[in-house]
């Protein structure tokens, strides 16, 4: 791979410099060499098929770019379509028992968690920063108020988050740190934008969110997708645990900001209610969680479906809660863990790897 040039277009873009590791640059080129491997691009799986007993996956149905539908038979199905799509595919395929928030019964859709990501924006008169020269991995993190790294006595919440300063992008408009009282458009907005673009930064939190029985995923009773399947519905709001955690950690973030002796500090808080605006995080978790028994979870510790042993569901859908870290390292580790179990255990003795 080529050395990173800190181009400033890391987050949300493919790397034109071939410096970023992703499935496209690492795994797929190796798989493409194998005669036994076929990659069907521009195809969308619409259903996981099961036999009459409902205990065995028989393959998947997919639609190609021309809208033609195919049935692909399979001895083993691994669903790895991203957390929300994993859960939606299981739901629309009728695999598993839907979670009912009224009774607490059922497992599919429960423990949906998000993250809480407040920030503190910092404005200087005497420091010049260049937000445009950024890279995904360029940053500083304070992990002292995450997880169990500190004494929570009397604080009224569990868990925490990491506090970070990073510059993954300096794209104008998206990188819009403006002092208190700036109008949202017009000449005064433009003037404030120009004056502050090179002299501002932010410190943000990757705050954990614990599961709550009222936060869950299910199927929408009204809206349908292009294939006629119900859309997935998210029922979600921030709860007291994370709002208290926000108050505490933002206090620490303000202390860090003040130590930099800025002209102005502006808090950007989340809540009290969840809102899809502004962009906060793409770290969704849960809905098909792993656990020790089928009464409380959808998959076992190897991400094997409790009801359908030849079906594995890989991704952050397996997380029982959302911790104060970025998820993809754990998603990757779980994928390796699951793949190893499939290769070393399941393929030798197909069947449940954990007894229910
Ligand atoms: C803008 C952005 C920034 C992020 N930054 C970070 C970060 O800094 N750190 C971090 O840890 N995480 C980050 N994430 C989260 C990270 O991208 C996910 O955790 C990770 O990609 C999840 O991996 P996955 O394999 O489960 O799903 P994905 O990487 O989403 O892969 C799923 C694949 O399945 C395909 N697919 C979906 N449905 C179907 C279907 N029905 N049929 C066929 N194919 C299907 C999709 O096209 C996709 O290729 C970020 C995400 C976004 C969007
Ligand atoms: S900053 Fe990101 S996108 Fe830009 S060269 Fe480096 S790895 Fe590639």
TrEMBL record:
Pfam families: GMC_oxred_C (PF05199), GMC_oxred_N (PF00732). Keywords: FAD, Flavoprotein, Oxidoreductase. Transmembrane segments: none annotated. The keyword Disulfide bond does not apply. SUPFAM superfamilies: FAD-linked reductases, C-terminal domain (SSF54373), FAD/NAD(P)-binding domain (SSF51905). Gene3D superfamilies: FAD/NAD(P)-binding domain (3.50.50.60). The keyword Ligase does not apply. Residues 4-112 form the Glucose-methanol-choline oxidoreductase N-terminal domain. Residues 211-335 form the Glucose-methanol-choline oxidoreductase C-terminal domain. InterPro entries: FAD/NAD-bd_sf, GMC_OxRdtase_N, GMC_OxRtase_C. Belongs to the GMC oxidoreductase family. This is GMC family oxidoreductase. It comes from Aquamicrobium soli.
């Amino acid at each position: 791979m080529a050395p990173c040039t800190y181009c400033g277009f890391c987050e949300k873009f493919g790397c034109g410099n071939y410096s970023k590791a992703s499935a496209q640059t690492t795994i797929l080129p190796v798989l493409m060499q194998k005669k036994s491997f076929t990659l069907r691009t521009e195809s969308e799986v619409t259903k996981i098929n099961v036999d009459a007993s409902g205990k065995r996956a028989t393959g998947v149905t997919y639609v190609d770019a021309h809208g033609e539908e195919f049935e692909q038979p399979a001895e083993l199905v691994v669903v790895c379509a991203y957390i929300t799509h994993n859960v939606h595919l299981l739901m629309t395929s009728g695999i598993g028992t839907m979670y009912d928030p009224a009774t607490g019964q059922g497992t599919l859709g429960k423990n949906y968690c998000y993250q809480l990501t407040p920030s503190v924006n910092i404005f200087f008169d005497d420091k010049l920063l260049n937000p445009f020269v950024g890279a995904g991995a360029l940053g500083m993190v304070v992990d002292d108020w995450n997880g169990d790294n500190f004494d929570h006595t009397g604080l009224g919440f569990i868990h925490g988050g990491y506090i970070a300063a990073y510059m993954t992008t300096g794209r104008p408009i998206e990188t819009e740190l403006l002092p208190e009282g700036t109008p949202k458009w017009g000449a005064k907005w433009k003037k404030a934008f120009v004056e502050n673009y090179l002299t501002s930064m932010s410190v943000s939190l990757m705050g954990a969110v614990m599961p709550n029985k009222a936060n869950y995923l299910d199927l929408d009773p009204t809206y349908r997708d292009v294939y006629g399947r119900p859309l997935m519905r998210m029922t979600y709001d921030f709860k007291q645990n994370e709002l208290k955690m926000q108050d505490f950690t933002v206090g620490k973030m303000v202390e860090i900001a003040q130590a930099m002796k800025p002209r102005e500090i502006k808090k950007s808080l989340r809540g009290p209610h969840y809102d899809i605006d502004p962009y906060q995080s793409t770290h969704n978790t849960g809905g098909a969680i792993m656990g020790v028994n089928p009464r409380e979870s959808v998959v076992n510790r190897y991400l094997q479906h409790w009801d359908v042993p030849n079906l594995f569901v890989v991704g952050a859908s397996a997380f029982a809660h959302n911790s104060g870290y970025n998820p993809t390292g754990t998603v990757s580790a779980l994928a390796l863990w699951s793949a190893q179990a499939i290769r070393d255990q399941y393929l030798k003795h197909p069947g449940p790897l954990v007894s229910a």
